[in-house]
Amino acid sequence: MNRRRFLLLVAGGAVLTAGAPAAADAALWARLRAGGLVVLVRHAATEPGVGDPPGFRLDDCTTQRNLSPAGRAQAQHLAAVFARERVPVARVLSSEWCRCRDTANLAFGAYEVWPALNNVFGRPQNASTQTVAILERAGAFAGSGNLVLVTHGSVIGPVAGVGAVQGELVLMRPAGTGRLELVGRLLPD
Questions:
Q1: Using CA atoms, how far apart are residues 55 and 37, in angstroms rounded to an integer?
Q2: Could you tell me the residue ranges of all domains in the chain?
Q3: Which of 15, 46, 137, 152 minimizes the number of CB atoms within 10 Å of its CB?
Q4: b (16+ CB within 10 A) / e for 109-148
Q5: Per residue in 21-61, pLDDT tens?
Q6: DSSP alpha helices (H): ranges in 35-160?
Q7: Which of 3.40.50.280, 3.30.1060.10, 3.40.50.12280, 3.40.50.1240 is the CATH number of 3-48+58-186?
Q8: DSSP letters along 21-65, please?
């Protein structure tokens, strides 16, 4: 094979590869428009760090690791994308951590706090109880819209079986009380 033809084939393959995620994303947005899914949202981008500073308090956002300016923009962009894609939202539940509440507020407006979505990083004794509570509630979800759960990577892992990056959406199909099935993942833009 001559070099020019090889480069054209490689370039063609890259175009096909680059187009595949876009097509998959379009199919996932169509599934979201149909409603009935559980959307696990890892909070938007934060200031650098892991976990929270020693002595942080849930009632004082100044003691926590919070959204960065890029994270605030990411959450606002999510609001615009949900509006553009006409995704129906039945209910939004959030962890008590400020970075999750801020993500929920900026992306969806109205939300309710649900402690089962709280961070289990550094609190492994809570992981099993919280995972069971989330699976029971989310697995039994039925509605014309989607149930949105804004939480942490440490919670998404045990619930969905995948690691999520900040701002990522993990789409799950309710499969009966205590069960969710992975539909797909949408990465932040």
A1: 37
A2: 3-48+58-186
A3: 15
A4: eebebbebbbbbeeeeebbeebbeebbebbbebeeebbbb
A5: 577 799 999 999 999 999 999 999 999 878 788 888 999 99
A6: 69-84, 98-108, 124-139, 153-160
A7: 3.40.50.1240
A8: HHHHHHHHHHHHHH---EEEEE---BSSSSS--TT-BTTBGGGS-
